[in-house]
């Protein structure tokens, strides 16, 4: 069974994330969405809320693709999480060349710790390359329209979280 791990903070999950998830499904039999517990980033949504959003957004994708998709919170090293879930590959989404430089360093470190786990890069579709969760939250906070960047369910959750529902 090919198991892939797609890690991120997903605060909140965007259509860019969903694009990568859908495309990653063609590479694996099971996709684990690693929801990072990153206290340094100070997420707007709680871990439980982020996991619930991922599960809600991925249910239809899993059914349509015939791939098991599970949300898995983690706070340890990414390579350790990959080992825990039995992943043979880590899936990373790239938006721009600037992302690649950081990701390249991460691949080197991860391979030094476990050279049996490959990293696969998927480029975001052109219409999703500028989307970042941080920017989506900022746009929503300043009363901008975020409907192009998140699903209606995530938009409603974000607006409620910001007290704008």
Molecular structure report:
The chain has six helices and five strands; from the N terminus they run βαβαβαβαβαα. The chain is of the alpha/beta class. The protein has one domain: Rossmann fold. It has a five-stranded parallel sheet with strand order 3-2-1-4-5, with helices on both faces. The N and C termini lie far apart (43 Å).
Largest sheet: 5 strands, parallel
By CATH reckoning, the class would read Alpha Beta
What is the CATH architecture descriptor?
3-Layer(aba) Sandwich
Number of helices: 6
Read across the widest sheet, the strand sequence of neighbours is: 3-2-1-4-5
Whole-angstrom Rg: 15 Å
Distance between the termini: 43 Å
How much is the average pLDDT?
Answer: 94
Which H/E pattern describes the elements?
EHEHEHEHEHH
Number of domains: 1
Choose one word for the global shape.
globular
Approximately how much helix is present in the residues?
40-55%
**What is the fold-level CATH name, i.e. the topology?**
Rossmann fold
The total beta strand count reads 5
Derived from helix and strand composition plus strand pairing, the structural class reads alpha/beta
Strand content: 15-25%
Enumerate the spans where pLDDT stays under 50 for 5 or more consecutive residues: none
